[in-house]
Every structure is written in C-alpha cells, then in structure tokens.
Amino acid sequence: MSVAVVFVHGIRTSASMWRPQLEYLAARGNTATAVDLPGHGTRMAEDFTIEGAFATIDRAVTDAAARGPVLLVGHSMGGLLSLEYAGSDEPPPLAAVIGAGCTAIPRGAALRAYRLFLRGFDSLPDRGAAITDYVLARTLPEETREDFGAGGYAFDTQHTALASLSVLDLMRALRSIRVPLWFVNGQYDQLRINEALFTRTVPEAELIIVPKTTHLVTSMRPDVFNAVLNLAITTVEQT
Q: Is pLDDT at 83 greater than 60 in this prediction?
C-alpha cells in the first residue's frame, strides 16, 4: 500500500493552504487528506477546543491508516498539534511526521506578545485583512498567493486557539515519538525561536532550513516543500 498523507493547517487559515501539496501527491499517486480544525475553514462556525482539534486529527489519521502507512504533516499551530498527537501515551498509527514552522514553545512572553500583536490587527476596520493581503502579495508566488486565505480567515478563533496551545507538553511528546521526524523551517521564520531545543530533544530528527523563506514555507517554496514530502514518503516506503 502507498503512503497516505494527512495535513493539518496553521492558525487562521484552513485546509486550502495545502492545495499545492495535495496536487503534487495526487500526481505522485498518494492519497492525501487536509483537515479543517474546529473554528477554521468549513468549520468556522464551531468553537475551537484542543480536544476537538486532536479528535479531528485522530479521525483523519485513523481513516488514512486503513489505506496505508501514514505521514502526518502539520504547519505552525497544526505542526505543534501534530507533534503533541504523535507523542501521545498511546502511540497513534503513524509512520512518519513532518513539523513545519513549529519549533517554538507556545507559552510565556513570546505567546503573550503574539496575542497582543493579533489584538492590534483586530482593532483595524478590516481586522488586518488588507495588510495580510499586501504582505502575501509581496512574499508568495502568484500561483499560491490565494491558497492561504481561500478558506477564509478564522479571526474569531485565533485568540482561543492560541491560548489553548499553552497546555501542550511538547518536550514530553517529542521524547515519545518513535517514527522518523523532520522539522522544516524557513530561514526567516520567527518560530525558529526554540529550534535548538527541539533538535537537542530529538537528535535523530532531521532539520531542514529553506533559505530566503519566511514562516509560510509551504506556500512560499511549494516545490521545495514537495521535495521534503517526497523524501519522507520515500523513507517510509523503504522502511
């Protein structure tokens, strides 16, 4: 059976951010699923809870495991959730994990500063949508520029979701992961803040730094990220 891939999006965005990867895997012959977490995308009307997020990931992974070995891929908040899920006390049916843009501990001063930054955006008439569009237009290639916001922005969910992340015990989770693991960061990603701690905790994990790339590595350099997917899938196939 071929490797099945499950994608988990970051905060504010939705499953739409994974369009280039879904198209790549379809052409490669791998089945893939991109979930919408509670309060995001097609589930915008729902309340975000950490339990609901993990249940969403677990349903997708369990379903994918019926079709083949599972590669779990998460970006930003989705990466943090995926790492915590992969390191559960009862190991889920995973063959490998990719965490992109998520080598940061989501608590303390850094989390408070980011939430304050988001509140500043929320105070704007359009909740910062114009600024977001301006930045994306100048950092993302034209072919992926619309993907990040195609499913809508979860403005009403972001603060609850961020606050929920403080309960994660990532160091414990990382030490419990027993499958191949890749960390993928853009060179200029602000969430590289605890990168050294993550790699020290899991020395067997592979760290991939994508040059001249920001936090939105999956959309800014989709061909590079697809190459990482190919690496992970090939590794699982040869195990």
A: yes
Site of tokens 């980011």: 114
8 Å CB contact between 185 and 104: no
- Main-chain phi, psi angles of 81, to 5 degrees: -65, -40
Q: What is the 3-state secondary structure (H, E, C) of the chain?
A: CCCEEEEECCCCCCHHHHHHHHHHHHHHCCCEEEECCCCCHHHCCCCCCHHHHHHHHHHHHHHHHCCCCEEEEEECHHHHHHHHHHCCCCCCCCCEEEEECCCCCCCHHHHHHHHHHHHHHHCCCCCCHHHHHHHHHHHCCCCCCCCCCCCCCCCCCHHHHHHHHHHCCHHHHHHHCCCCEEEEEECCCHHHCCHHHHHHHCCCCEEEEECCCCCCHHHHCHHHHHHHHHHHHHHHHCC
Contact 127, 203 (CB under 8 A): no
pLDDT band at 123 (very low <50, low <70, confident <90, very high): low
pLDDT band at 190 (very low <50, low <70, confident <90, very high): confident
Q: Which of 219, 214, 215 has its CA nearest to residue 19?
A: 219
| 58: amino acid identity, one letter | D
Per-residue tokens: 26:
């379809």
| Residue whose token pair is 């988990």 | 8
Residues 197-224: b if buried by 16+ CB within 10 A, e if exposed: ebbebbeebbbbebeebbbbbbbbbbeb
Amino acid residing at 79: G
Say if residues 173 and 86 touch (Cβ distance below 8 Å). yes
